[in-house]
Specification:
This protein is of the alpha+beta class. The chain has 3 domains: about 5-115, 3-Layer(aba) Sandwich (Rossmann fold); about 130-145 and about 220-350, ATP-grasp fold, B domain (D-amino Acid Aminotransferase, Chain A, domain 1), CATH 3.30.470.20; about 150-220, 2-Layer Sandwich (Dna Ligase, domain 1), CATH 3.30.1490. About 40% of the residues lie in helices and about 25% in strands. The protein has 13 helices and 13 strands. It has helices spanning about 15-35, 55-65, 85, 105-115, 120-130, 130-140, 155, 160-175, 195-210, 250-255, 270-285, 325-330, 335-350, and strands spanning about 5-10, 40-45, 55, 90-95, 150, 180, 190-195, 215-220, 225-230, 235-245, 260-265, 290-300, 305-315. The strands form 3 sheets. The protein has a 5-stranded antiparallel beta sheet with strand order 11-10-9-12-13. A 4-stranded mixed beta sheet has the order 3-2-1-4, sandwiched between helices. Helix 1 crosses helix 13 (about 335-350) and helix 5 packs across helix 6 (about 130-140).
Length: about 350
């Protein structure tokens, strides 16, 4: 039986370019280990930071070294994939994080190739990326959340009469502390914790420089719990993990630097609460129409026993410090087995 050629799509145009390379290295190693290397052939496809697609020895070099390529100043060729690049694979594994990677843009392009791919389609990816759309979907599904206010860049960068009223409304509805977040950036980029009016004004201005849609969430004293979800129409949830960190929130450095966060797997929670979180994770997965792979994050309020959903990530990291593969390993599914299932789920969905 011929080996399946998996187009491992990595790099990308977001600020998580280097994280994507690290995830791709782990995935390539895992796929190559399945059935002693006799089941899949990994075809590395590297998206340079300007969106140019590269294959062959150049992509293999980036995958092996883990070093991103600089964009040549005199580059003039198209950044879109060629017919030859599309023809070289049977299935895509787009391990791209952040904007232009897990927000539905690349998923739409892959759909046009007519080939199956790992992960959510256009709808699930887009809703899972946009925090305001995501929260609307969660609310429709009846999932409890922290209080939040949606804001636009136009409101923030408005005339001097409108902006103070916006800040007044946020203070009245949410109070301090609160978190200001761009709606469409991953890995905690552009997020600020604010405790005063002056910090709020600065944080709103900063978030508006990243995105035209911004979300402001009420702060909550809670433990951060994560759950991995795997499947298509009948998804299943992993054991739970807990993250503890010294920074104000689980920022980019804490996520991707070894030793910056303490991970506890399984999380120390009452069995009834753990079951509730797993059920809510599956509900969230289905609410945004996710597929294949997702990680769902929660807040657990010790004082009241309340569980609040935070967000879903439809293409979580696969690095050595990433929770998604670690949660499944703790559930009894080793990385190579997990990857095999993800590929098979993509084939099932694309059939």
């Amino acid at each position: 039986m011929a080996k399946l050629r998996v187009g491992l799509l990595f790099g990308g145009r977001s600020g998580e370019h280097e994280v994507s390379i690290a995830s791709a290295q782990a995935i390539a190693a895992g796929l190559s280990a399945i059935d002693q290397g006799n089941k899949y052939t990994v075809v590395p496809v590297y998206l340079r930071k300007d969106g140019h697609w590269l294959t062959g020895s150049t992509a293999q070099q980036v995958l092996e070294t883990g070093t991103a390529l600089q964009v040549p100043e005199d580059e003039t060729t198209s950044g879109l994939p060629t017919a030859e690049q599309v023809a070289s694979v049977d299935l895509w594994f787009p391990i791209l994080h952040g904007p232009n990677g897990e927000d539905g843009t690349v998923q739409g392009l892959l759909t046009l190739t007519g080939l199956p791919f790992v992960g959510s389609g256009v709808l699930g990816s887009a809703v899972g990326m946009d925090k305001l759309a995501m929260k609307t979907a969660f609310a429709q599904a009846g999932l409890p959340q922290v209080k939040y206010v949606g804001v636009t860049r136009a409101e923030i960068w408005s005339n001097p009469c409108v902006f103070p009223k916006l800040c007044d409304r946020i203070e009245a509805e949410l109070g301090y502390p609160c978190f200001v977040k761009p709606a469409n950036l991953g890995s905690s980029v552009g997020i600020s914790k604010v405790r005063s009016r002056s910090e709020l004004e600065t944080a709103l201005d900063s978030a508006a420089s990243y995105d035209r849609r911004i979300i402001v969430e009420a702060g909550v004293v809670a433990r951060e719990i994560e759950c991995a979800v795997l499947g298509n129409d009948t998804p299943k949830a992993s054991v739970l993990g807990e993250i503890a960190f010294s920074s104000d929130f689980y920022d980019y450095e804490a996520k991707y630097t070894a030793g910056q966060a303490d991970l506890t797997i399984p999380a120390n929670l009452p069995e009834s609460t753990a079951n509730q979180v797993r059920e809510m994770a599956v509900q969230a997965f289905q609410a945004v129409d996710a597929a294949g792979i997702s990680r769902v994050d929660f807040f657990y309020v010790d004082a009241t026993g309340e569980v609040l959903i935070n967000e879903i990530n439809t293409m979580p990291g696969f690095t050595a410090t990433s929770m998604y593969p670690m949660l499944w390993a703790a559930t009894g599914l080793e990385t190579h087995e997990l990857l095999d299932q993800l590929v098979q789920l993509a084939l099932e969905r694309g059939a």
